[in-house]
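Structure ticket #2291
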Amino acid sequence: MSLLEYNEIKEGKIIIFNNEPCLVLDGHVARTQQRKPQNQVKLKSLVSGRTYNETFRTTDQVDEADLTKRDVKFLYTNKGEFWFADPTDPANRFKLDEKILGEQTVRFLKPNELVTALVWTNDDDEENIISVKVPIKMAFKITEAPPAIKGSTASGGNKPVTLENGATINVPLFLEAGETIVVNTDTGEYVERAQK
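Resolution: structure written out below.
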Protein backbone atom coordinates (compact mmCIF):
# COMPACT_ATOMS: atom_id res chain seq x y z
CA MET A 1 0.00 0.00 0.00
CA SER A 2 1.21 3.47 -0.75
CA LEU A 3 0.45 6.59 1.25
CA LEU A 4 -1.34 9.43 -0.49
CA GLU A 5 -0.98 13.06 0.56
CA TYR A 6 -4.16 15.14 0.97
CA ASN A 7 -3.86 16.63 -2.55
CA GLU A 8 -3.28 13.22 -4.20
CA ILE A 9 -6.75 12.00 -3.19
CA LYS A 10 -8.35 12.45 -6.59
CA GLU A 11 -11.34 11.19 -8.55
CA GLY A 12 -11.01 7.52 -9.47
CA LYS A 13 -8.56 6.62 -6.68
CA ILE A 14 -9.54 3.87 -4.24
CA ILE A 15 -8.41 4.59 -0.67
CA ILE A 16 -8.77 2.90 2.71
CA PHE A 17 -11.01 5.06 4.91
CA ASN A 18 -12.70 3.87 8.13
CA ASN A 19 -11.04 0.48 7.54
CA GLU A 20 -12.79 -0.15 4.22
CA PRO A 21 -12.01 0.58 0.56
CA CYS A 22 -13.68 3.72 -0.76
CA LEU A 23 -13.83 5.07 -4.29
CA VAL A 24 -13.15 8.80 -4.61
CA LEU A 25 -16.09 10.10 -6.68
CA ASP A 26 -15.06 13.75 -6.62
CA GLY A 27 -12.28 15.86 -5.10
CA HIS A 28 -11.62 19.59 -4.90
CA VAL A 29 -8.67 21.30 -3.21
CA ALA A 30 -9.95 24.58 -1.76
CA ARG A 31 -7.58 27.38 -0.78
CA THR A 32 -8.94 30.27 1.24
CA GLN A 33 -6.96 33.34 2.32
CA GLN A 34 -7.17 32.74 6.06
CA ARG A 35 -6.87 28.94 6.16
CA LYS A 36 -4.57 26.24 4.92
CA PRO A 37 -5.68 24.33 1.81
CA GLN A 38 -7.97 21.37 2.25
CA ASN A 39 -9.28 18.67 -0.06
CA GLN A 40 -13.06 18.21 -0.02
CA VAL A 41 -13.92 14.78 -1.40
CA LYS A 42 -16.98 12.65 -1.98
CA LEU A 43 -16.38 8.99 -1.14
CA LYS A 44 -18.32 5.82 -1.89
CA SER A 45 -17.72 2.77 0.28
CA LEU A 46 -17.11 -0.26 -1.93
CA VAL A 47 -18.27 -2.54 0.91
CA SER A 48 -21.53 -0.93 2.07
CA GLY A 49 -22.25 1.26 -1.00
CA ARG A 50 -22.78 4.31 1.25
CA THR A 51 -21.61 7.71 -0.02
CA TYR A 52 -20.42 10.56 2.17
CA ASN A 53 -18.39 13.76 2.12
CA GLU A 54 -15.05 14.10 3.88
CA THR A 55 -12.43 16.84 4.24
CA PHE A 56 -8.69 16.10 4.24
CA ARG A 57 -6.22 18.71 5.51
CA THR A 58 -2.56 19.26 4.59
CA THR A 59 -1.40 17.06 7.48
CA ASP A 60 -3.62 14.11 6.47
CA GLN A 61 -2.40 11.00 4.67
CA VAL A 62 -4.40 7.94 3.61
CA ASP A 63 -3.52 4.48 2.33
CA GLU A 64 -4.28 3.71 -1.27
CA ALA A 65 -6.20 0.41 -1.37
CA ASP A 66 -4.20 -2.62 -2.38
CA LEU A 67 -6.49 -4.29 -4.91
CA THR A 68 -6.06 -7.22 -7.26
CA LYS A 69 -8.10 -8.27 -10.28
CA ARG A 70 -9.18 -11.85 -10.83
CA ASP A 71 -11.27 -13.60 -13.47
CA VAL A 72 -14.37 -15.37 -12.17
CA LYS A 73 -17.08 -17.21 -14.08
CA PHE A 74 -20.73 -16.23 -13.66
CA LEU A 75 -22.84 -19.36 -13.29
CA TYR A 76 -26.47 -18.41 -12.67
CA THR A 77 -28.90 -16.32 -10.64
CA ASN A 78 -31.57 -17.78 -8.39
CA LYS A 79 -34.00 -15.84 -6.15
CA GLY A 80 -31.79 -12.76 -6.07
CA GLU A 81 -28.56 -14.70 -5.45
CA PHE A 82 -25.77 -14.40 -8.02
CA TRP A 83 -23.48 -17.46 -8.13
CA PHE A 84 -19.92 -17.43 -9.44
CA ALA A 85 -17.04 -19.92 -9.60
CA ASP A 86 -13.29 -19.97 -9.95
CA PRO A 87 -12.73 -20.67 -13.70
CA THR A 88 -9.99 -23.21 -12.91
CA ASP A 89 -11.97 -24.95 -10.14
CA PRO A 90 -15.73 -25.08 -10.84
CA ALA A 91 -16.36 -26.68 -7.43
CA ASN A 92 -15.13 -23.48 -5.74
CA ARG A 93 -18.48 -21.62 -5.90
CA PHE A 94 -19.57 -18.48 -4.10
CA LYS A 95 -22.46 -16.03 -4.18
CA LEU A 96 -22.34 -12.25 -4.34
CA ASP A 97 -24.90 -9.66 -3.35
CA GLU A 98 -26.56 -7.48 -5.98
CA LYS A 99 -25.31 -4.27 -4.30
CA ILE A 100 -21.69 -5.42 -4.84
CA LEU A 101 -22.38 -6.19 -8.49
CA GLY A 102 -24.21 -2.97 -9.35
CA GLU A 103 -27.25 -2.49 -11.55
CA GLN A 104 -25.39 -2.21 -14.87
CA THR A 105 -23.32 -5.36 -14.22
CA VAL A 106 -26.40 -7.37 -13.22
CA ARG A 107 -28.16 -6.22 -16.39
CA PHE A 108 -25.50 -7.76 -18.65
CA LEU A 109 -24.44 -10.89 -16.75
CA LYS A 110 -24.51 -13.97 -18.96
CA PRO A 111 -24.19 -17.60 -17.76
CA ASN A 112 -20.72 -19.15 -18.18
CA GLU A 113 -19.21 -15.76 -19.07
CA LEU A 114 -15.91 -14.64 -17.53
CA VAL A 115 -16.05 -11.37 -15.61
CA THR A 116 -13.38 -9.42 -13.70
CA ALA A 117 -13.62 -9.30 -9.91
CA LEU A 118 -11.87 -6.57 -7.91
CA VAL A 119 -10.47 -8.18 -4.74
CA TRP A 120 -9.47 -6.33 -1.56
CA THR A 121 -7.40 -8.06 1.12
CA ASN A 122 -8.06 -6.60 4.58
CA ASP A 123 -5.65 -6.43 7.55
CA ASP A 124 -6.60 -9.99 8.61
CA ASP A 125 -5.59 -11.33 5.16
CA GLU A 126 -9.21 -12.07 4.29
CA GLU A 127 -10.04 -11.61 0.61
CA ASN A 128 -13.24 -9.71 -0.20
CA ILE A 129 -14.67 -9.20 -3.68
CA ILE A 130 -15.78 -5.56 -3.69
CA SER A 131 -16.93 -5.20 -7.29
CA VAL A 132 -17.43 -7.15 -10.49
CA LYS A 133 -17.06 -5.78 -14.02
CA VAL A 134 -18.36 -7.36 -17.21
CA PRO A 135 -16.38 -6.85 -20.44
CA ILE A 136 -17.07 -3.49 -22.10
CA LYS A 137 -18.25 -5.15 -25.33
CA MET A 138 -20.27 -8.37 -25.19
CA ALA A 139 -22.16 -10.40 -27.78
CA PHE A 140 -25.82 -11.26 -27.13
CA LYS A 141 -28.44 -13.09 -29.15
CA ILE A 142 -31.74 -11.26 -29.69
CA THR A 143 -34.56 -13.49 -28.44
CA GLU A 144 -37.54 -11.17 -28.97
CA ALA A 145 -37.93 -8.32 -31.45
CA PRO A 146 -41.00 -6.62 -32.90
CA PRO A 147 -41.18 -6.92 -36.69
CA ALA A 148 -39.86 -4.05 -38.77
CA ILE A 149 -42.60 -2.03 -40.49
CA LYS A 150 -42.02 -1.80 -44.23
CA GLY A 151 -40.66 1.57 -45.23
CA SER A 152 -39.75 2.64 -41.69
CA THR A 153 -36.13 1.46 -41.97
CA ALA A 154 -35.21 4.10 -44.55
CA SER A 155 -35.58 6.94 -42.07
CA GLY A 156 -33.66 5.14 -39.32
CA GLY A 157 -34.97 4.77 -35.80
CA ASN A 158 -34.83 2.24 -33.02
CA LYS A 159 -36.96 -0.46 -31.45
CA PRO A 160 -36.70 -2.26 -28.11
CA VAL A 161 -35.54 -5.90 -28.19
CA THR A 162 -35.00 -8.55 -25.51
CA LEU A 163 -31.60 -10.23 -25.28
CA GLU A 164 -30.85 -13.84 -24.31
CA ASN A 165 -30.18 -12.84 -20.68
CA GLY A 166 -33.49 -10.92 -20.37
CA ALA A 167 -32.03 -7.40 -20.75
CA THR A 168 -33.91 -4.95 -22.97
CA ILE A 169 -32.09 -2.45 -25.19
CA ASN A 170 -32.88 -0.29 -28.23
CA VAL A 171 -31.48 -1.39 -31.57
CA PRO A 172 -31.90 -0.27 -35.22
CA LEU A 173 -35.17 -1.33 -36.86
CA PHE A 174 -33.53 -3.77 -39.32
CA LEU A 175 -32.42 -6.24 -36.61
CA GLU A 176 -34.55 -9.33 -35.97
CA ALA A 177 -34.88 -12.13 -33.40
CA GLY A 178 -32.13 -14.75 -33.72
CA GLU A 179 -29.42 -12.29 -34.73
CA THR A 180 -26.34 -11.79 -32.53
CA ILE A 181 -25.29 -8.24 -31.72
CA VAL A 182 -22.49 -6.51 -29.79
CA VAL A 183 -23.53 -4.30 -26.87
CA ASN A 184 -21.49 -1.67 -24.99
CA THR A 185 -22.13 -2.69 -21.36
CA ASP A 186 -21.02 0.69 -19.97
CA THR A 187 -23.66 2.64 -21.90
CA GLY A 188 -26.14 -0.17 -22.55
CA GLU A 189 -26.21 0.69 -26.25
CA TYR A 190 -26.11 -1.36 -29.46
CA VAL A 191 -22.69 -1.26 -31.18
CA GLU A 192 -22.87 -3.56 -34.22
CA ARG A 193 -23.85 -6.96 -35.54
CA ALA A 194 -21.55 -9.68 -34.24
CA GLN A 195 -19.12 -11.23 -36.73
CA LYS A 196 -20.11 -14.76 -37.76
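Closing remark: The chain has two helices and 16 strands.
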